[in-house]
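Subject: sequence -> C-alpha cells, single chain

Hey, anyone have a minute? Need the predicted structure for the following. Not urgent.
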Amino acid sequence: MTETGKIKEIKNNVAIVVTDSSSACFGCMNHECKTTSEFIKAENPLELPLEPGQMVEIKPPDTPFVGQTLTALLPPVLSFAAGFILMRLFFPGAGEGAAAGLGVVLLFAAAFVVYFIRKKKPARDISFVVSRIIG
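Reply:
Had a minute. Here:
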C-alpha cells in the first residue's frame, strides 16, 4: 500500500504527512482516511532531503511481517496444543471433546493475553517510511 501526501512538519527524522485524499488505496478505497483525516508519521530511513510542503510517497516498512504474525498467532496455537495434551495426560479417561474443549479455552485465554499485552505495549508507533520525493 503506497500512498502520497504532503509533509506538514519534520521532527527528528520523522515526517508528519497529510495524505492526499484524492488517491484511494485499495484496502479501504480511502474511506477511513476521508472520515478521520489523521496525520501519518513516516520515518526517513533513506535520509532524503525532506522539507515541509513537499509531496512524498510513503509505504509500510520492509520489515518482516512474519515476526509480528508469529508473536500474535503462535501463543494461542501453542496453548491449544498444550491444553489438549495436558488434558489427555492428566485425565486419560477424558474423550477428545474434553481435551479439545480445554484447548479452545486456553487458546482464547492466550489470545486475550496477547491482545492486552499489545494494547499496553504497541509494537511500533511509526508504521510508514518515506520511499521517495515526488515534488
